[in-house]
Amino acid sequence: MTAQASAVIVTKGLTRRFGALTAVDSLDLVIEQGEVLGFLGHNGAGKTTTVRLLNGVLTASAGQARVLGLDPASDGVALRRRTGVLTETPSLDERLTAREQLAIYADLYDVPRSQVSARVDELLEAFQLADRGDDRVSGYSKGMRQRLALARSFLHKPELLFLDEPTSGLDPVSTRQVHTLIREQSRSGDHTVFLCTHNLEEAQRLCHRVAVLEHGRLVAIGAPAELGRNLWQGVRLEVETSPACVELASSVIHAFPAARDVTLAEDRPILTLALADREQIPQLVERLAAAGAPLYRLDPQEPTLEDVYFALHGEQEATR
Ligand SMILES: Nc1ncnc2c1ncn2[C@@H]1O[C@H](COP(=O)(O)OP(=O)(O)O)[C@@H](O)[C@H]1O
Ligand SMILES: [Mg+2]
Q1: CA-closest residue to ligand 1 atom 12
Q2: Model confidence over 97-120: pLDDT tens digits?
Q3: Which residue, by CA, sits nearest to atom 3 of ligand 1?
Q4: Hey, which of 48, 83, 202, 308 has its CA 20 to 30 A from 275?
Q5: Which pTM value belongs to this model?
């Protein structure tokens, strides 16, 4: 297989079957160094199976993969030394403290002895665990466990990081912290991140490109805005009205049958919405005017991943 020089992951026809079920179906992917790729799909789409194939934890039924220049099927051990993996349900040793847990991993991943203590401190700090670093994991909350598991996957500064649903089950504050950390990790441009998620907003925020997987098949890949332009014929609008009329405008827009995904800005009299067709704009403007809500501004916006999802799956299937 000929791989692009800078590609970190290349797959060709990668397929994994479980009996009669094809969990990953003829996957062709090229992921460049420094990319944050969002791997997006419903539960059961084949995301975790793909991560396991790319790390050599599972063998392919057909097709090939090269990851960091290695074949995961035969060089899994060497490969896993260079990748960081946050699995879907990370296992932590309940009897150990976070500090002990990280130190053991540092040893496993050959972090030089002289650097371990500083690196562990740095991670405990970054993941808001510093004050609990000497407590046993058995007393940790779900969010703390997830942050510790993430810290562990970052420990050896892997050039390729697989994160399988890193924020699932986390509260909004922890989720934001995790997003910041992923962004920091990718900022240097050397680290590649393969991020499995079914959270569209997360993918939109963090990823350079997203790949949409459906029943094991890749149905779309590209930058979020590019996918939106290619796959969606509708229009997303930002509507500005007066502070006094924002409730009124909001009720008119909510009552407008063609409007979808209506949101109101927190601190400004601005609403955003999506319409399937721009021909619906004049009607909406008429209704706002008839209700007496002044229209100060009407701006088209880049489509979101949610718009792409609606285009791909229809209204019933869009995830949140
Ligand atoms: N070890 C396994 N044995 C049998 N079926 C499996 C196994 N692992 C995954 N599957 C099936 O493969 C499909 C894809 O699963 P998975 O990769 O976990 O999806 P996702 O991570 O996108 O939710 C699902 O239908 C799942 O039930
Ligand atoms: Mg999964």
Answers
A1: 23
A2: 999 999 999 998 989 999 999 999
A3: 18
A4: 202
A5: 0.82
Ligand nearest to the CA of 54: 1
Per the DSSP assignment, residues forming a β-bridge with 195 are: 38, 163
Residues 6+ apart with CB under 8 A from 54: 9, 11, 65, 67, 72, 162, 194
**Could you give the residue range(s) of every CATH 3.40.50.300 domain in the chain?**
7-228
Cβ within 8 Å of residue 229, ≥6 positions away: 303
Query: Going by CA atoms, what residue is nearest to atom 4 of ligand 1?
Result: 18
**CB of 48 sitting under 6 A from ligand 1:** yes
Q: 254 vs 261, 271, 306, CA distance in Å?
A: 9, 10, 18
Q: 7-228 — its CATH code?
A: 3.40.50.300
Instruction: Please report where in the chains the tokens 């992923």 appear, as a residue.
Output: 182
For 26, which DSSP code? E
Ligand 1 contact via 52 beta carbon (within 6 Å): no
Q: What is the pLDDT of residues 123-175, one digit of tens each?
A: 999 888 999 999 999 999 988 998 899 999 989 889 999 999 999 878 888 88
The boundaries of every CATH 3.30.70.100 domain in the chain are 233-302
Nearest atom in ligand 1 to 43's CA: 23
For ligand 1, whether the C-beta of 197 sits within 6 Å is no
Class of domain 233-302: alpha beta
For ligand 1, atom 25, the nearest C-alpha belongs to: 44
Q: What is the mean pLDDT of the chain?
A: 90
Torsion, Cα of 215, 211, 225, 191 (10° steps): 160
